[in-house]
Amino acid sequence: MSAALAFAVGLATGPVHANEEAAVSDPYQWLEGVEDPKALEWVKAQNAKAEAELAATPEFKQLEADLLAIYDSDDKIPGVYKQGEWYYNFWRDKQNPRGLWRRTTLEEYRKPRPQWEVLIDLDALNKAEGENWVWHGADCLRPDYSRCLVALSRGGADADVTREFDLDNKAWVEDGFFREEAKGALGWIDRDTVYAYTDFGAGSMTESGYPRIVKEWKRGTPLASAAVVYEGRADDMYIAAVHDHTPGFERDFVSRTLAFYNDELYLRKADGELARIDAPNSANKSVHKQWLTLELREPWEVGGRTYPAGSLLAAKFDEFMDGQRDFVVLFEPTQTSSLAGSSWTRNHLVLNVLEDVKNRLTVLTPGEDGWSRRPLGGVPEFGTIGASAVDSDESDALWLTVTDYLTPTTLMLGDAGEGAAAPEVLKTMPTFFDASRHVVEQHFATSKDGTRVPYFLVRPKDLVYDGTNPTLLYGYGGFEISLTPGYSGGVGKGWLEKGGVYAVANIRGGGEYGPRWHQAALKANRHKAYEDFAAVAQDMIDRKITSPQHLGVRGGSNGGLLTGNMLTQYPELFGAIVIQVPLLDMQRYNKLLAGASWMAEYGNPDIAEEWEYIRTFSPYHLFDPAKDYPATILLTSTRDDRVHPGHARKMFAKMSEAGKDVRYYENIEGGHGGAADNRQAAHMDALYLSFLWQQLGQK
Fold this sequence. Notes:
Elements: H1 19-24, H2 37-54, H3 58-71, E1 81-83, E2 86-91, E3 100-104, H4 106-109, E4 117-121, H5 122-129, E5 133-140, E6 147-154, E7 160-166, E8 171-172, E9 178-182, E10 185-190, E11 193-197, E12 213-218, E13 227-231, E14 238-244, E15 251-259, E16 262-268, E17 274-276, E18 284-288, E19 291-295, E20 300-302, E21 305-307, E22 312-316, H6 317-321, E23 328-331, E24 337-344, E25 349-355, E26 359-367, E27 370-375, E28 384-389, E29 397-403, E30 410-415, E31 424-428, E32 438-446, E33 452-460, E34 471-474, H7 489-496, E35 501-505, H8 515-519, H9 527-542, E36 551-556, H10 558-569, E37 576-580, H11 599-602, H12 608-614, H13 619-622, E38 631-637, H14 646-657, E39 662-667, H15 678-696
Parallel strand pairs: 34-35, 34-36, 36-37, 37-38, 38-39
Antiparallel strand pairs: 1-2, 2-3, 3-4, 5-6, 6-7, 7-8, 7-9, 10-11, 11-12, 12-13, 14-15, 15-16, 16-17, 18-19, 19-22, 20-21, 22-23, 24-25, 25-26, 26-27, 28-29, 29-30, 30-31, 32-33, 33-35
Helix pairs in contact: 3-7, 3-15, 7-15
């Protein structure tokens, strides 16, 4: 787990608010018992009601079958990653609902129907072991990649087990490395040594529920006796370590994530001593060969200069560790641009920049006279473009993906080298719905404080601007995540093909305009994200694209908190609300599963001053039984061990008790994604799409 990507936040300290007493008096708190038999019986009863209302019609069954056919399609692009001479893929389809881990050669991959070598058949494994494993990935040891650490989750939860697999024999290693079920991981140091960060027993996990201790574990020895490499504090979020296997630049790093956007990265020396990389905790820190790059989330004054937030800086790693502070500015944001990502190839660094939420790729090359830059040639000028190295040690080859809301994803093999041939089209996703009648536009709404908020609109070409068009608005607005155009067979088949309008709002809290866009909606400013979303809804109403009785919203996780606030704060704008795997009880969110890790985003409700603003965006507390609310559906998963299903359960119970128009469905498996396989995903998507069309589709 890299410091830059760590999921965490520490618990703040301060005076405890009296809301603890109020929480205990919550009549629905018993529903927080995830596996409590009484609670599960309640869940099954609500599921049955939702199924009876939404799933019994021929139209539902047809939609569910159509979605399953899309999700199970053999014609989807099998995304691959390179290890040695092989190209690996994890694949699910109708015959393999839990999936196959498999590999092929590049020559074979170029063919329309490649031949694959199956390494692990997860459905066969589940049958043999009587389990319900869900794939969580494999870490294979360089340079020969013959041994792999495979992570498997029961039912799709974040917690998983790690088992050692022998690729040569395609078999589990007898008495190999094994990690019991917990949040955490194992990571290779060498063939007989791994880093282990997991649940070692009482007191070994943080208050956020993630590993607090990382150890170096030797093969054949008890995990309990493994040497401690680093021990964090209980109020840290996540402690981890990684060995960099890059030839000629082998190094070891320890990451200490204190909170979201707050981490420390240490170089672990040969004698075990840790040397801190002395850069701001808020910066994304990355080491590649001789280079250290820093992506700043806040302005940084160093070496007699101030670098703005959102900048990408580079320095020689060894020189930086020796105290030098000479940086090259590789990217500096503007009011309309931000860095979406970067990827090293063997000789170049490819930057992906968002300009008003539209991608452009630039190739940077370090040389004796500094860094040169040029656009990446041969890349289409439309759609969302992604770029990542095929093998940053071996070549300048790039995986390039191009997509938008109406254009099936295309995978190309390109090259970052100057004068390289145009990218080669390898795979194109089939068309899963009729997109010929729609167009994509970008508009800008004006939020309450005057901020210009972009949104994408997918509409029929012959749209009649009379306010009667069924419209689905999607958003997220958190954790610096950007929403860019992408092809969805499910939304296309279940919404657009019926003539619906689809919109995606790029509200504050996301990363569309870099750190400033995210930070503008943190904690006490959370309301700005909701004002942005409401402004987009109002803009579509003002343009007569739709009207409140024909406008629905959908969001999941942090987006479920968003749509929960649309329900409780802006009910007059909407005709239907979809709330998926949500946070809703913001008074207790930090006490439920991984909730404590998000306090850098929302604040700490146990501190009186912070609860005063958190309560203003806690849907569970904003709900008023005397108010009228639009029709609502809540969807969650019993096996979600990131966002507690109690949020959705309790909100439904409160709304139902008050006689509101609300229904509820909880998948018994599925994890935070909501579904553990394609069948479950098709069923849940058909439920929310059927609900929306039922509520909004009548003109």
